[in-house]
Amino acid sequence: MTRIRFDHRPFSRVTRALVAGLGLVLLSGCKLADIFDLSGNQSTMLTAGPVAKAQWDLFMITVYVCTFIFVVVGAILAYTQIKFRARSESDEHAEPPPEAHGNPFVEIGLIAASVALLVIIAIPTLRDIWYTHDVPEDEKGNAMEVVATGYQWWFKFEYPTELVKLPNGGEAPLVTGNELVVPAGTPIRVQLRTIDVIHSFWVPKLAGKVDMMPNRANFLWFKADKPGYYYGQCAEFCGESHAIMRFRVIALSPRDYSQWLENQKSPARTVTPALLANAADRSAHVQFAAMKLKAGEALAASPAFDADPLNAWREMQHPEAGEDAQLIAQGRQLFSAKTCVSCHSIRGHEGVGISGPDLTRVGARSTIAAGVLENTRERMHAWIKNPNHFKPGNKMWFGGYNVKDGDDWKPNFTVNDQEIDALVAYLHSLK
Amino acid sequence: MSSPAANGHLDHHHDHTTSTGIPNKKLLWWAFLASDCMFFGALISSHLVYRLNPPPGNAVPTQIFDIELTSFSTFILLMSSLLMALAVNAIQKGNVKSTRTMLLGTIFFGCIFLGGQVFEFTHFVADKHMTLSNSIFGSTFYTLTGTHGTHVAIGVLLLGMMYVRTFKPTHGGGLGRNFLHLLAFAVAAGVAFLFFVPGLLEVIEGESLRAMLSHDAKPLILGAIACAALVWFARTSDPTVEFGEKNAIDVEAIGLYWHFVDIVWIIIFTAVYLLEYL
Amino acid sequence: MAEVIAQSGFTGKQTAQPATTFSLFPRPTAKTGIVSWLTTVDHKKIGMLYGGFAILFFLIGGIEALMIRTQLMVPNNRFISAQLYSELFTMHGTTMIFLAVMPLNAAFFNLLIPIQVGARDVAFPRLNSFSLWVWVVGAILLNVGWISHFVPSWNFGGAPDIGWFGYAPLTSKSFTPDLSTDFWVLGIQVLGISSIVASLNFIVTIINLRAPGLTMMRLPVFTWMALVTSFLLVLALPAIAIALIMVMFDRNFGTNFFEVSGGGQPILWQHLFWVFGHPEVYILILPPMGYVSEILPTFARKPLFGYPIVVFSGVAIGFIGFGVWSHHMFTTGLGTVATAAFALATMAIAVPTGVKVFNWIGTLWGGRIVTRVPMMFALGFIWMFMMGGLSGIMHSAAPADAQQQDSYFVIAHFHYVLIGGATFALLAAIHFWFPKFFGRMVPEFWGKVSFWVIFVGFNATFFPMHFLGLNGMPRRTWTYDSNMGWNEGNLFATYGAYLLGLGIFTYFAVLVWSYFKGEKCGNDPWDARTLEWSIPSPPPEHNFAAIPTVHARDAWWYEKTHKAEIAQEKAAHIKAEESHGGIHMPDQSWYPLFAAIGLLVGGYNFAQLHHPVTMFGQQVLASHLPLAITGLGLMVASCYLWALEGPGGYHLHIDAEGKVTESRGDHH
Amino acid sequence: MSAPTAPALAAGHHEPSKFHFYIQIAMILAVITGIEVVLIYLPIVKWLVVTTLIVLSTVKFMFVIFYFMHLRWDKVFCTILFFIGLVLAGFTMFALMKLFASDAGKPLTAAALDFARTTLG
Ligand code: HEA
Ligand code: HEA
Ligand code: CUA
Ligand SMILES: [Cu+2]
Asked: pLDDT for A306-340, tens place per residue?
């Protein structure tokens, strides 16, 4: 029978020093601090509302307790590992230490300690389960109700209490897409619905997520403490473009909010009476055909935008300089001609489609395609040109530009650059 | 320690060569049945979950069920369980003849049960217009009872194999004969529950015997031939067979399965059928 | 006593053989070569096959992970398409769990359980072989979709792309119309069958084939954990089996289980999946806890501290594990009461788990810790598992979990428990038992190098992910934008993953080298404690020349300290056994393999049931149904012949010099 | 109950035949089934019927497993083994029923109907 051979330090001192040195160099080379920086747009730490705040506080309690456990148990483990390691060949072959089979008092003590530590976590957990579940009783009165519906891969938002006049004389709740505008300081209760698969509504700075379950009446609540521009994201895998199914929540001061609401409720903005003649040769001076992206730049927000997103969003609400009435008119006409209307609606103009986002005020959105692209003319052009490039599997591409023919897809319509320019001009005029 | 082999008797409840005294096969089957509890547990809960909150337009069970027939099926299955227990009892005493009879009886009742289910399903689909896909109740009901039925069918097949196995000659060989015997058995059982029993039930429900015989003629003739073959195989068999008291554990193992299928039905009968009438 | 043992043969069953058997063609008897592997019923060979396949899939899963990491290295990356990315993470998760860690555990179950309980094989050797081949069938069905990427005419729509928990209704025909989902459903179903069958076998083996004197409270902890795991498997898998049947029916036969339009409730899938899924994670971790509980005492040179309580806590973990499944569903709107109940139950699991950690530390305390490579991985396991477990506790605080669920924080949590926990322990176990089954040592130096590279690489990959998660990065993110603050963390994690890959590569490369060139070793190179170390390395076919009698926990340790007494006992056993006709061994068989092939044909065709069969561009059959039925028929026929064939068997005789001879025929 | 006591088990002897005993059990089972069917038509309060039905089917269940399936004469471990599965399955079923019976567990269609009923009518 072979015995264990003593082989305590396989790495020489030099090797170890080298490795340690190399490690240090590598670490200092990376921007290590950035890795642990929790100040991102979807940080769960930089909370902006009571729900997220409660969740973060609870999280920190678990962190304290668990760190405490880790430090204590780890210290004992480390001590044991060092203190009782075999130090020499003879140590390894020494008579085994006396048998010890466990000590009931120690065990019971440790179990009791574990339970006690868990209770520290459990109590605030229970409190917060009830707190985060629904709007507190005393605030129920002034809570606002919205309905969010998940689609593959974008969000529809409805304001059931804000009714708008429809062209046919009826009334319906106000509908927007991908940007949820709410008043700050008001508790918002969001009904969560989906029309296809499971999605999840997550605005980390405002509240933890709740899933949009098919056939379930889910809801969540949040409150934005102050006006701001918040990033949201679908958090349940929902197919190919799940990762880029994003949205934004814009919280406004009550005054700004009512102003915004006012504007929303009116029909789509019409720049001038329709001027259809001779639109084609006016395209010469429109130059936003190419989308340029500098290395490291975000698709959804330029650095300027990122610097003060709320302000940037506000800017978007105003009509742009240099609008070309004829081009816009041509765009409006193309919007019908190219069957965009079958999926999108522009209240007051053409369009009754409901399978795509409502575009009544698409020009005033800060992003398009559910938070994927900043809503600049270049990017909207790029989007309309090839939606599938930005959102693989996109329902605008599969179903609009291409339609199903048996098992295969066949092209349905195409739009050329000039037409897209017109469409973009039109869509951007919708403020 | 006394060796059971030494005094020529087998002790059917204890196997002195295993650590626990429980024969391996028995332990295996009990563990499997524990697992099957979870299987049916999940299946039955799924059914009940959908019954808790039926969607609008769901089928209404009490308008669909035929409780007399189901009670009869339940009774039949219970009786098959009795026969199964008697089969085990017989083989434990080394009585191969009686074992065969009891096995056949079990199979016979099993086929009646299956036939009842075939009848029930066709009746639900054709007369009550409840299909697997046109309501959630149909989906869960057919899946649950169908899975149970599949268990019964597998049980019938296993019992058939065991029955045929009791004819295994001591002198070796006989694979081909064994196979033909099993084939005859399978055809007979298949015809019984796919055509014969449902047909008889039709007759009880009011269809004329003649009509039934005429449209099911071919399979019934096939079944009759298979039955004749079964009789022939049973009569002409070698009297010295390689089957006896030592195989009690095999029969018992199948018995455990069969009884389990029965108790699952006891639950289904209450949870799926009876409770709907309240 | 000796007489009883002699009778017990390999299965503990009466060895009375039928005088004759039905047989279609002769039973295979080859002891070497491909036929011996295909028809083997030897638990050691089956274990090796499981192990080999599992390691292969571990590397495949790892390469999938590296592709994922490469895609996420920089923002807005287009290295991989969104579709392929979905396939990659789905298959990475499915592969690692079902095709790497579970079969690796199964490999150790096979290799060790019969030896640790002092038996010659498992209770049902042919069934064991069946489990193996059925597992292979499942693995093939799951992976067959990859072919579409290379041969477009095999239009399966690529590999499964629905996430490893395949949430309905994404699995519905309307959202994933291609065949990949059908293959996923069938593949998992088949793997489940394999696991249930194997587990039943192990349950009987452990409970019924224990050597004389080996009471339950003397069982090695690993075997105990294997028993608990086997119970978890047979009790948890039925839930997912039902759920998979429902999906299959929805997809193929128009049922409405998860079709909202027909009144279905997709959330039921989640419940049924996690009723299985949560016990599943303990299925993954309990065997590793077993390895560690064997390795720590060996290298601390001290028996396990608090054996009964370690065993009991394992049972408790298994039991409580069935009551916490909804902690994966905190964000699905369960309501306050249910959420609270599941949160508290989840926290409760920390207690028995903590008990294990404390007792491991107790084992080290006062010992003489020899830091061999297995020990380093085992210690690494304790550290890393503790971290993963504690982030699990953070998840259990439901409101806080609302921020973490489906974020990279979860990814960090479960990779800490799955890699830092399960994988570290498996790497420890491989290194520890390699000498036993190959008779050669793995070089210490390279073992340690690989340990450190893996350890550093692992932490570099997954530690930053906690922060990514807290910074709002959702999981299953094909690509992300550059202004989210995730760039550095992802880049670092990707470098870490490469380093980790290098470490894993080193680890296995060294194993391959050792297989050919490693230093030869004896029975007991680590001076270990349990029965497997009492027999030669590699173990002979019959494991024990004489079935041991167990006098204490750590049976081999006792033998080493009571040599004279044991030698006498053994001689008596050998004599008694020889007088009863020698060592009874089970015969090899083709039928388990054939039955599995039947299942493969059946499963493969059933998945594409409603599609026409084409050959060279021509339609041959209107649907795959006839082929599926053929496969099923093949399987049933094989099972039938298998039953008729009987266990068979032959005898081994060991003479005074230890030479082994074989004889066939009836000795009674 | 009139069931004969368990036959004494002397290893190595044939047990006395359980033939008549089994038939008695089967009769009891059949009678219980009959009672069950009659019960659902009786004008008794619902909870009582439900409880009785559950009790009766449990009794049937126990008869089958302990007598037909021999648990009564087998090693107690078989019973334990089976009850692990049985209890766990029962527990899981119970939990699932509770989850789906709660308010939060209502599907949208049912919830919507309820809502309409309470607010409109
Ligand atoms: C090996 C696998 C494994 C193991 C062992 C665990 C162990 C645990 N897991 Fe984990 N878990 C997974 C694998 C595993 N998990 C996987 C794969 C997922 C994700 C699935 C998916 O979504 O894809 C997941 C997800 C997951 C979630 C869902 C997260 C979400 O999606 O929102 C939760 C929530 O509660 C959770 C909790 C726990 C807990 C409490 C434990 C406990 O068992 C841990 C107990 C251990 C300790 C606590 C450490 C040691 C103890 C002490 C030192 C004693 C003192 C400690 C205290 C008193 C606190 N896990
Ligand atoms: C036991 C389980 C297990 C293991 C071991 C791993 C191992 C790894 N996992 Fe795993 N992972 C899961 C289980 C596991 N994972 C699960 C369940 C999911 C969820 C899936 C889902 O969402 O559905 C997941 C998801 C997941 C994601 C998230 C994907 C997403 O949500 O978008 C990521 C991302 O980084 C990741 C990374 C890794 C890495 C880098 C490793 C590394 O440890 C891998 C290390 C191994 C290697 C790198 C192989 C090395 C070998 C070579 C390099 C040899 C080459 C040799 C030859 C060519 C001969 N995993
Ligand atoms: Cu919607 Cu992910
Ligand atoms: Cu879990």
From this structure: 889 999 999 888 888 778 888 888 999 999 998 89
Q: Are C389 and C350 in contact (CB under 8 A)?
A: yes
CATH no. for residue A127?
1.10.287
What's the total number of domains in chain C? 1
pLDDT band at A22 (very low <50, low <70, confident <90, very high): confident
* Nearest by Cα to C664 from C32, C123, C26, C45: C26
Are residues A126 and A147 both part of a single domain? no
Q: Which atom of ligand 3 is nearest to the CA of A212?
A: 1
Q: Which tops the pLDDT comparison, B169 or C381?
A: C381
C491, C449 contact by CB (below 8 A): no
Cα B249 from Cα D22, distance rounded (Å): 19
In sign, the C-alpha dihedral spanning A125, A126, A131, A134 is: positive
Task: Identify which has the larger pLDDT, A305 or A295.
Answer: A305
CA of A156 to the centre of ligand 2 (A): 35
- Please list every residue in chain D whose beta carbon sits closer than 8 Å to the beta carbon of residue C215: none
* Residue C193 within a domain: yes
Ligand nearest to the CA of A151: 3
Residue B18 Cα, gap to closest chain C Cα (Å):
5
Ligand nearest to the CA of A72: 1
| Residue of C415, C419, C461, C510 to test ligand 2 pocket, by largest number of atoms within 8 Å of CB | C415
- Within a domain: B14: no
Q: Does C396 sit in the ligand 1 pocket, CB within 6 Å?
A: yes
Answer whether D102 sits within 8 Å of C338, measured CB to CB.
yes
Closest CA to A127 of C403, C390, C340, C333: C340
Nearest to B17 among C13, C242, C268 (CB): C13
Task: Look up the CATH number of the domain holding residue A383.
Answer: 1.10.760.10
Question: Cβ atoms within 10 A of the Cβ of C364, count?
Answer: 28
Give the range of the structural domain holding residue B189, as residue numbers without chain letter: 22-277
* Residue B141 near residue B120, CB atoms below 8 Å: no
What's the CATH number where C424 sits? Answer: 1.20.210.10
CA–CA distance, B119 with B107 (Å, rounded to integer): 18
pLDDT at residue A30, as a whole number: 59
Q: Is residue C27 part of a domain?
A: no
C398 lies in some domain: yes
pTM over cut 0.90: yes
Confidence grade of residue A270 (pLDDT, cut at 50, 70, 90): confident
Q: Which residues of A touch C477 (CB under 8 A)?
A: 243
Under the banding of pLDDT at 50, 70 and 90, the label for residue A290 is: low
How far does CA B94 lie from the centroid of its chain? Answer: 24
Q: Which of C202, C225, C439, C241 is nearest to C313 (CA)?
A: C225
Q: Are A169 and A249 part of one and the same domain?
A: yes
* For ligand 1, mutation pick of A114, A117, A202 (most atoms within 8 Å of CB): A114
Task: Give yes or no for residue A287 having a pLDDT over 60.
Answer: no
Contacts of B173 in chain C (CB under 8 A): 20, 22
CATH number, domain at A152? 2.60.40.420
Please indicate, yes or no, whether residues A56 and A167 belong to a single structural domain of this protein.
no
The pLDDT assigned to A244 comes to 92
> What residues of chain C score a pLDDT lower than 70?
1-24, 665-668
The β-bridge partners of A398 are A402
pLDDT of A285 strictly over 50: no
Is C275 touching B (CB cutoff 8 A)?
yes
Q: Tell me, yes or no, if B58 comes closer than 8 A to chain C by beta carbon.
A: yes
Do the chains contact at C399 and A218, CB–CB below 8 Å?
no
Indicate which residues of C carry an active-site annotation: 92, 121, 164, 194-195, 278, 280, 282, 293, 327-328, 353, 356, 475
Query: In chain B, what is the straight-line distance between the N-terminal and C-terminal CA atoms, in Å?
Result: 59
- Is B92:B122 a contact under the CB 8 Å cutoff? no
Number of domains within chain D: 2
Task: Give distance in angstroms: CA of A119 to centre of ligand 4.
Answer: 20
Centre of ligand 4 to C-alpha C100, Å, is: 19
- Does the pLDDT value for residue B234 go beyond 90? no
